[in-house]
Structure formats: structure tokens, C-alpha cells
Design a protein that fits this description.
alpha/beta; TIM Barrel; eight-stranded parallel beta sheet; 8 strands
């Protein structure tokens, strides 16, 4: 396979605080990358007057720029980050009002998916830091609501949560069942090597693409996605992993005989197309 596919399932672009969509996509492509799935960043990274809808529309514009100006195929994922609720509460918004605003944000995300401007609702879920029980109850209700909206829109959700093991994956799987959403449509962003069915309970793990995580995962199978969670923030260069990581890691594994061309295609094309219900045309 002269040209191998490489999809980064969770990578940010940010022309305000980082290099921006074109430069990130070009760096990704020079390293062999073929497709980027890009969630919007939180509103506060854009500006104090930024609304949920504006943040989502911005990332849709970034995706259009990448598709127009580069050879990378880009797709938007839209939704209110769970930390948005915490921020609203810190600023004096009531818990009830905060929940209402987050629900409106999720509904906006669903509308953009239904308009085919985005391919999934995300990153949504609950915070990776401690919050009061009353706030966590709201996050869990919003998580279920996001899954219900995704079921109506027939799209996946990308989850941002605390570090999750098999017990948390089972909890999310049961929420998906309650919402009527297919379990594989629930993508756990920033996942560890939970590839076996008894580990992920039918959810789709999107693996943070460090060498150790990918090597361990490949011993269990290929039913996963790969991501960097690249932030595109000049104050944190290379965080979380750089935009060249997924294509370079894939090529390195292939050259070392740790993965076959068929397995590469399965991870970077077939899994992506099946979970998102789209065609990459590779």
C-alpha cells in the first residue's frame, strides 16, 4: 500500500490561540494523514462574547477551509463541552439555568448534524475533575439527553469524561441503551486500550495514540479509533499529542510488522465509516 489511510478521530484546530486549520492540516498531511475529525473548542478559548452556537459554527468553517485548501478530508463534531456548565456556575448562573443553557447547546448541535454540517455531537459528557454531587447529577442528565438527541439524528456522540475503565464503559453503555442509541455510536474520547468486548461493552474506544496504548490494543484487536487530542495552542506546543502522531505511529507500526495493511485500513477507514455512517472515499 503506497499511500496508507490515517484518521485522527479527535484533533483541534484554533486560529485564535494556535496555528489554525490550514497549518495543522498541512502538517498532518505531510506526515501521511488523510482525515481529521475536529470538535469545536470551548467558548472561552474564542472570547468572552462567544456563544455555544458561534463556537460550533467556527469549527464548521475551519473544516470547510481544510477541505477547500488541503488534501485532507475534515469533519466537524459539535457540542457544549461539559466544562462549560462548571464555568457558568462559577460565573453565578443557577444550576437550573445552566442545565437549560446546556440543553439548548446540545439541541443546536443536533440541528447542525441534521443539516449535515457536522458528523457527531461532542465532545460532551462530564468533567474529568471533582464537582459537587448536585452538579454531577446535571452532567449525567445532560449526557443521557445528548445520547437521546444523537439517536434522533442517527449520529454518534463523542464523550469527554473522567478516566474510564470497564465499569464506566458499562455505565455509558447502559445510558446508551436507555436512550435507544446503538452502543458503538458512543465514542469514548481519550480512551485507554479497552478493546475487548468485556472491557468496552460495545462502545467505540478512541485511543490516545501513545506507542504503549496502541501496541497493547493491537494485541486485543483492531476495533478502535486513534486520536491525538491535539489542542493547537501555542502556549502548550504539542499538547496533548502533536498532529503528526497518528500517521507517523501508524506507519511505524506497519514498518515494524506490528500491524498489517488490512488492519490499518480497518482502523482508519472501515471503523470510521461504520461508526459515523459516512464514506471517506479512500
Amino acid at each position: 500500500m503506497e499511500r496508507i489511510p490515517s484518521t485522527d478521530n479527535h484533533i483541534h484546530v484554533d486560529p485564535i490561540n494556535g496555528e489554525g486549520p490550514r497549518e495543522v492540516a498541512l502538517n498532518f498531511h505531510r506526515s501521511g494523514g488523510t482525515a481529521m475529525i475536529i470538535p469545536n473548542k470551548p467558548t472561552w478559548t474564542v472570547g468572552e462574547d462567544c456563544s455555544f452556537k458561534k463556537a460550533m459554527e467556527l469549527v464548521i468553517g475551519y473544516v470547510e477551509e481544510i477541505n477547500r485548501d488541503t488534501e485532507v478530508k475534515a469533519f466537524a463534531v459539535v457540542g457544549p463541552h461539559p466544562a462549560e456548565l462548571s464555568r457558568l456556575l462559577r460565573e453565578g448562573t443557577s444550576l437550573e439555568k445552566g442545565e437549560h443553557l446546556m440543553m439548548e447547546g446540545l439541541e443546536t448541535a443536533q440541528e447542525l448534524v441534521q443539516e449535515r454540517k457536522a458528523v457527531a455531537i461532542g465532545e460532551v459528557g462530564r468533567p474529568h475533575y471533582e464537582v459537587p454531587p448536585s452538579e454531577m447529577e446535571v452532567h449525567n442528565r445532560l449526557l443521557l439527553y445528548a445520547m437521546e438527541l444523537a439517536r434522533e439524528a442517527d449520529c454518534p456522540v463523542q464523550l469527554h469524561t473522567e478516566s474510564a475503565g470497564p465499569l464506566e464503559f458499562l455505565e455509558f453503555a447502559r445510558l446508551a441503551d436507555q436512550a435507544g442509541l446503538k452502543r458503538e455510536k458512543v465514542i469514548k474520547h481519550f480512551s485507554g486500550p479497552l478493546v475487548l468486548p468485556e472491557e468496552n461493552h460495545g462502545l467505540t474506544p478512541s485511543l490516545i495514540s501513545s506507542g504503549d496504548v496502541i501496541r497493547v490494543s493491537l494485541k486485543k484487536g483492531t476495533k478502535f479509533l486513534m486520536e491525538t487530542d491535539y489542542l493547537d495552542d501555542l502556549t502548550r506546543p504539542g499538547a496533548v499529542l502533536g498532529p503528526k502522531t497518528v500517521p507517523r505511529r501508524t506507519r511505524k507500526l506497519l514498518n515494524a510488522g506490528l500491524i498489517t495493511e488490512e488492519e490499518v485500513y480497518s482502523i482508519h477507514v472501515e471503523n470510521v465509516e461504520r461508526v459515523y455512517g459516512m464514506e471517506l472515499g479512500f
